[in-house]
Amino acid sequence: MATLREIRSRIGGVKNTQKITKAMKMVAAAKLRRATDAIVAARPYARKMRELLSHLSGRVDVTAYPHFEVREVKAVCVVVVTADRGLCGAFNSNVIKAAVNHIQTHYAELQAEGKVKVVCVGKKSVDFFGKRNYTVIGRYAGIFHQLDFAAAKGVAARLTEGFLRGEFDRVEIVANEFKNAVQQNLTVTPFLPLTGAGTDGAASHGADYIYEPSGDAIVSALVPKHLDFQIWRVLLDSNAAEQGARMSAMENASTNAKELIRVLQLTYNKARQAAITKELLEIVGGAEALKKAG
User: Fold this and answer.
1) Buried b / exposed e across 232-257, counting CB within 10 Å, b at 16+?
2) Which residues are known to be catalytic?
3) What is the span of the domain harbouring residue 272?
């Protein structure tokens, strides 16, 4: 049985850990508020951009644009978006498992031929796929330490360049989508090629619009902006989901620490009571022995 000193030391260690988890929860909650504001502000813009591109694609010959070209899939690129840090529950492992399962389920033959390319966004995905039998063509570790739009443009540029060069014929993104502070949705989102009916297959609106300077000119300008912003939205979603997952994980850790402290305190009290009882018995036994000797 552990000594009283060992139990006291362990209680102190758990209390210190509890202080850290509570502080991390508060930090994550503050970051979550900012991240939530950012994604809530970005979603309407992304949605309107999709609607506009969907409307235009029904009135413009999109076959003239290579971003819409649907090719036979001889090579594919899978973008895996995780966090740069841990201590956020199953946030990272869920994304990695989903990505691995998606590759094995849909692209097993291509993977065996080395024709599945992986772009890793976030240190956790870089560490996982970089140490295994995957062809990693992009590593973006530390991207969430100072998240900005330039980082999203860099990722989008690499994916677009590879698709237009014929390096791969399809691009899909595996990431966590923010739903609320305690829940994230794992999503596998097609990125390229863009579909002929719009970026998400949505039907064109019935209303007709007059575009200036022309529909073709607007599509040419809008497609790169749309691709950049879709990556930006994915990064914002993942960042908000990460902070929510970390806040929940730290809250659970603090609750578990509280319960562990209660159990250890009870064990300490029992051990202390047993030690006191033993000392009393020794004193009484010694007094009885002195009486008999006298």
Assistant:
1) bbbbbbbbbbbbbbbbbbbbebbeeb
2) 88
3) 4-21+251-293
